[in-house]
């Protein structure tokens, strides 16, 4: 927009409405200043009218839309270039990399969840539902189950009858096995166990006790075990309830965990950036600039999956998502490395392979920790 273009006499930008001080931050201004050089607010003292309010509202949308348009266009079609432009100072042209990544990833999971609820049979990238299992159980409902009885003969039950027995906890053989395997450990005994194994031993003890007696109240269970009823012991024992919920509804837990993926990647990125910083140590890029590059890569993946949701929904398969992850994604990553770090093809290919290996290894370890933390908080 041409800021030197003469303003209309009744416009908020007109010369007669200008002041010598910014009304927003108090910064001194000249009458020739249309905008404050400190906070960028318009230099005007005109009272706000409906026309002015709507004009500012539409202008703010168009300004944001411009940043969003440039970010999406360069992110999709100029791999690595958007990062190069951003770190070289073109900050106002693009959306903030960290905020954009969180926004596009959260929007993806929200829309994916909405589409799954509308069309449960859709096989999207992270579609987790138990409809298929429900059909399988229904188809088995009338099948006969053969099991050994106490007198040595084989009896027959239907699956529906077996479920009733399970619901009423009439499983004598399993209970006997649990009684044989249960090993009591007192609080004083825990003090003699190495601290690194103490949590595992305590959890196994509480899990065995829970399966044997079906006591859900942690205080009652700890009383029975003669263990301290402190917050830590109650927390460990209450993980039995979490395990039951995961076993009863694994798809619900999967959806809960997938909803945390954007935050997992957000906190995983600093670790991955450390390997970039080491591998490209001879390049004059800071650690934070490597992080910007990684956030742009992750943003491209989520943006691509977001775009592929609709065609995958229309054709009923995840072919576009598969092409994105299997073909377009790796090629995009290679081109981004080449365009941003400006190294030869051979060196870029070697580092591309190395970084992919490091990514899958480190992300697998981090994902296990992420799963454990998510399960503990579930």
Task: Give the gist of this structure.
The protein is mostly helical and 378 residues long. It has 15 helices and two strands.
Report on the architecture of this protein.
- The structure is a single chain.
- The chain is mainly α and 378 residues long.
- The protein has helices spanning 50-77, 81-87, 97-118, 131-140, 159-167, 172-181, 187-190, 195-213, 218-225, 231-248, 250-258, 261-279, 287-315, 319-341, 345-377, and strands at residues 144-148, 154-158.
- The chain has a two-stranded antiparallel sheet with strand order 1-2.
- Strand 1 and strand 2 form a beta hairpin.
- 66% of the residues lie in helices and 3% in strands.
- It is built from 15 helices and two strands.
